[in-house]
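#struct-pred
JK: can someone run the complex with S-adenosylmethionine? inputs below
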Amino acid sequence: MGSLPNHPPLKTLHSPKPFFPFAAKHLAMNLKPIGVIHSPYKTRAEAPFQGRPSEEVSEVEVFDEFLPGLADVEGCTHLFLLYWLDRADRKVLKAFPPHDGKEHGVFATRSPNRPNPIGLGIVDLVGVAGGRLRVRGLDALEGTPLLDIKPYFSEVDSIPDASVGWRNGGESKRNDGR
Ligand SMILES: C[S@@+](CC[C@H](N)C(=O)[O-])C[C@H]1O[C@@H](n2cnc3c(N)ncnc32)[C@H](O)[C@@H]1O
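RT: done, structure tokens with the ligand placed:
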């Protein structure tokens, strides 16, 4: 695996010794769901591979103890949702995305099966009532635990010329030097 175009080799950038006394490798995360997703999809086969182009509306239930965190969310047109793909296979490191049916490393794909099965969706916020958000464009199954909600900032989160090499039939086109 080589370095990206215009990038120095990683080893020259950072010390190989961990700064913190506990190596990151052994850290256990304690994630607490902030809510649960209610969607029309009961099985994996029913859900779209990416929800973004879908017109289907899902409902996101936020648990009572987290409701103060929803203040001002109603003013957002689009949100990032992070969810725990609880029915995924966490042992998988290779995936065959439907895009080309070839094998790729999971970290170069959006496969639900991966060591830490965190789903990422950008959704349209359709409405907010009480602790419930109605959102369009999600691919999560009914009962999927919700981990976080963040506003989508178009001025920083949109990268119109971004590309993924294997989807273009070749290497990444990135050569901007960053
Ligand atoms: C390809 S993943 C993409 C997820 C997210 N949009 C992302 O990019 O991180 C979406 C697929 O995950 C599967 N899926 C949805 N909810 C799931 C869950 N709770 N557990 C396991 N698989 C799930 C469905 O088959 C759906 O088509």
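RT: quick notes.
The beta strands are 35-38, 57-62, 78-84, 94-95, 104-105, 118-129, 132-136, 144-151.
The pocket of S-adenosylmethionine is lined by residues 44, 47-51, 85-88, 110-112, 119-121, 139-141, 144 (CB under 6 Å).
JK: thanks, will look after standup
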